[in-house]
Amino acid sequence: MNRENKKKSFEKGYYKTHPCHETFTCKVCGRLVVPAGAGSAHRNHCPNCLSSLHVDMEPGDRQAECGGIMDPIAVWVRNRGEWTIIHRCRRCKSLCANRIAADDNPIKLMSIAMKPVASPPFPLEYLEAMTGMDNDRSKDKTHGP
């Protein structure tokens, strides 16, 4: 079954209990994506551009009618250090989290992770000023009243 043909009927929750052997062409970058190399039995995004399709309401259920492109917008790290990609649907704006795969593009992952650091919500000069004030205060404490 191709991912593009998601209407093919399987019982509800089929992909939760069965490996996903689908091969699909990424709708964003055009790369042919195969299940091998993911490091798990479930491939749910392109390892090149990290984009996905909105096909699930819950992981593996294939019940979403939206079908929109899911853009990778952030990463977060779970308690045990496992990285997860946050996707947002272009069509319905829904958010979901997907575990990274073994063959995901490390440069793209780091680019997403560093985006907030590269574009902070305040001028970088504020950090410089705050750092200068902290150093002045610590000097005052070490040299007495």
Written description of the protein model:
This protein has a four-stranded antiparallel β-sheet with strand order 3-4-5-6, covered by helices on one side. A two-stranded antiparallel sheet has the order 1-2. Helices cover 25% and strands 19% of the residues. The protein has helices spanning 14-17, 106-118, 124-142; strands at 24-25, 32-33, 52-53, 69-77, 83-89, 95-99. It has one domain. It has 145 residues and is α+β, with helices and mostly antiparallel strands. It contains three helices and six strands.
List the main descriptive attributes of the protein structure presented here.
about 140 residues; about 25% helix
For the record, the count of structural domains works out to 1
The percent range for helix content is 10-25%
Number of helices: 3
Would you report the number of β strands? 6
Alpha carbon gap, first and last residue = 76 Å
- Strand/helix succession: HEEEEEEHH
Structural class: alpha+beta
The radius of gyration is 21 Å
Strand content: 15-25%
Organism: Gehongia tenuis
Domain RNHCP: 22-110
Protein name: RNHCP domain-containing protein
